[in-house]
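Pinned message: reference record for Thioredoxin
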Amino acid sequence: MNKNVNPKQNRSKGRANRQLLPMLLGAAVVILTGVLVWVSSDSQASENTELDALPNYTDVKGKIVVDGLKYEKQPHLGNSEAKVKVIEFADFKCPACKQWTEAYLDRFIKDYVDTGKVEFFFMNFAFIDRDSYLAASAGEAIYHQSNEKFWEYLHKLYANQGDESTIWATPKFILPFVKDNMEGIDYSRFESDIKNHTYMYDVKEDFKIAGSYGVNGTPKFMVNGELLPDSSYEGLAAAVDAQLNEAGQ
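Predicted structure (tokens):
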């Protein structure tokens, strides 16, 4: 037994330890909070940078004159001599566009395009959000290198489509996506076109033309210049068949 221990000193040390513990915990909370705020701020800054890199229709320079559908400027499939011209108006962020493409496009191509009855066109109606414009611009950039590669881009981008309510088709996504998934294009040229918003005029022109013909959502279809009231495959096929009958085919 240690006869030199002072009970009062022990009680004093105990009280000091109990007082020190909350101070240490408080300091730890302050440090953790600071770290979380820093991480959140850094993440927000990165997100803002991505948003700043997205194009906007107000950035487009040059007057747009709506004077026809301009079939010659659109990605296309099929015989240019076909009696029936079908345009699909679409937004790459649109879930219904993805669903229609996956469910019906190959069937429509087999029944009408490959048989020489229809020439099929794609026209942008990028309206959901700012990254819709970027996804459309990327499609235009690829189309201006290769019409065939545009359709590959369409299928692959729909297969990797993000949530409609989020901003996902950013340069941070689009550039590596194309680099990793699209062979046979000049990637340096593509990257330059995306960063310089080379084809935003074309995207806005499509948007203005489509709107002037009554397009207000996606997907929408036009058969020989007539906008269809719905987007069903049955409605599209019926409209095409009617035009073919009228043309004696």
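Pinned by admin. Summary line: Helices lie at 7-52, 95-113, 130-143, 147-159, 171-181, 187-195, 200-212, 233-246.
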